[in-house]
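Input.
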Amino acid sequence: MFGTEDEILDAISTRESDLSALRQQMEEDFDLFSLLAYEPKDASGKKRKGYEAYTSSAPRNFFDKVQDALNRAALTIQIQLPEGASQKDTRAASGGELFLFGALAEIDRRLTRRGEPPLRDGLGFLMCLRGWVSLRALVYTNKKKETIFDVMPWDPLHLTWEVGPDGLLWAAYKRRATKAQIYAEYGLTIEGKDGEVIDFWDADKNAVIVERQFAKKPTEHHIGHPPVFIGAVGSMPTILRQEYDSTLEYRGASVWSASRSLYEPFNKYVSSLMDVQRRAVAGSLKVKSAGGARDIEGDPYASFTVIKLDSTAGEDIEALELPRAPPETAAILGLIGTDIQQSTLPFPLAYGGTQQAMSGRALSLLSEGTRSVYTPRTGLMAQAYTWLLEELLSQFTVKGIQEKEFRGMRPKGDKREFFTFKASPKTINPNWFVSVTVEPRMPRDEAEEIAMALAATQVRGPGDIPLMSKQTARENILQIRDPDAEEDKALAEKGKALPPILAANIAAALKRRGEDELAEQVMMLLGKQPQPAGPPPLPPQLIEAIVGALMASGQRELATALVAALGGKVAPETETGMMPPGGAPPAGPGMMPPGGGGGGPGVTMMPPGEIGV
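Output.
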């Protein structure tokens, strides 16, 4: 689309004129964030010297409150599959989620090395400050054959773009870089201490212009679209004024979109009250004397002072009457304060709540009143992450060339746990449907939620079915982020509680404590102990699920011990195959082992009558 420096620069310059009002508004909002000091002015707009100046901290307090809630909001990432998806597809999708968590962890570490905040914090800051958010996402292989995930938030103030019928046509980002930075990144030496760098992307090519010259000529990027996301806070679509003038400055809503014009008059009236207070402290005196020659030395208000006056000379002294703030001042400040609260977050609910004891449900209902502030931003955060994660999936399958190990922290209930995972472009499906939700953390009554989940999944009699599956209860009532992983964890715990595994773990613990003789006695008792008559044996399908859960959670030794105790063994060449005694191949899907026991894919079980649990 663009082949020369002049063509790119002309396109940027033409589009910048449409963004001037939006950028001016962003600059004014930054003054609120930085708490630019209020300066008293007269009616003509000139600065008034010698007057008090008050600058409210409310804009920054409100900003910090919203950004903190946005940073702490529960971010859930899931790869959605159709109902009835096979176990193979479910396991693959779980691996895909680990790939995404690992990629995000690598992106955060890369940003940290640059001295930038983590991705989510940076995006949240831009949403609150600018009312817009943008980021550039790249996956590529460096000279060391390492796959790099390079994602950078862009400040919308310095972004120029144009949208077509099918999405973004092109995007250009301007920044200042030092002479050393430009040489390190592009191998280009410039005059002066720093220079302007323009990173330009269209649907086919990427170019970099430094000081109006190509540092990187237009080069095919093979992505198929500009790898840039641009979004605005709020739900306002693109509309025009009657004269077809742009309204972009109204689309993106910073946290002060409704209150930005209230702080200056608030500062003005409070400063006026401070002027009155200062004059009262000064305590001016009015002195009468013949010819106006009488003068009072020093500060008579500093301590008790006797001032002698000549009554024959008509001398007199009295305190000068102080100017008072008109009673309307309080009414004006009250109206402004009410509007500020309605335009931001109510006090004291949003700043610690009331002192009255309330249940989690009651607090949640009260907190609903603050969602109008959080929802536009959490919604945009979810959109940005959805775009980013799907972009990482598609670019990795194209740009990745070998298997890569990912490390990071994944959500586990209200906590996080460390994981390692290997993925290659062949194991990643670029067409996975990624679902991202970002929800502010509201007070929860977990005891009530657990009771609801138990009631919904209860079987009330023979032939009855529960109102809700455990999977749905975990997702909707208990709000567990990864219900499949939670089910695996429950099955793994059930496997550990089986008598053969429990006895083996007890013996291993005794050995670790140096009590080898007692450990051998436990194992001997396990071998001699007759199988109990009840409870009834576990179904082979449940045993297969337990073994699979143990394998999926990395507990291969426990899975091997369980299968061995049941008369089989784990095939050494696979992660899920189970071998029967004698080394025969594992039973395939739909095959029944000798004796009539039910076995799933790759598992051979003993007949149910020979397994006592």
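The first strand starts at residue 74 and ends at 80.
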